[in-house]
Amino acid sequence: MGLAGHLTISDNVVVSSQWGVPHDVPAGKVVSGYPAMDNALWLKCATIYPRLPEIYEVFRKIRAK
Fold first, then answer.
1. How does strand 37-38 pair with strand 14-15?
2. Fewer beta carbons below 10 Å: N end or C end of the chain?
3. How confident is the model at residue 15 (pLDDT cuts 50, 70, 90)?
4. Taking the mean position of all CA atoms in its chain, how far away is CA 21?
5. 0.70 surpassed by pTM
């Protein structure tokens, strides 16, 4: 967890676990991850992370062609 100094986290904000907030968060947002981002985007990213080595290998093969 971590917060940058001198930032504003507005009303009705939810920050999930394992987060880092380096910037202001507008009211009503749900943020997750590090750096903190919209929760829906974070969930998509978290789903892909375990497959990144496989995806990168396919990308390298395509790029080499």
1. unpaired
2. C
3. low
4. 10
5. no
Least Cα distance to 7 among 29, 27, 22, 28 occurs for 22
Total H helices, total E strands in the chain: 2, 3
- Can you read off the two tokens belonging to residue 23? 């910037």
Query: Which residue type sits at 65?
Result: K
What are the residue boundaries of the structural domains of the chain, listed by start? 14-64
Three-state secondary structure call for residue 40 = helix
Give first-to-last CA distance, the chain, whole Å. 42
DSSP of 41-65, one letter per residue?
HHHHHHHHGGGHHHHHHHHHHHHH-
User: Using CA atoms, how far apart are residues 33 and 17, in angstroms rounded to an integer?
Assistant: 8
Of the two residues 25 and 43, the one the predictor is more confident about is 43
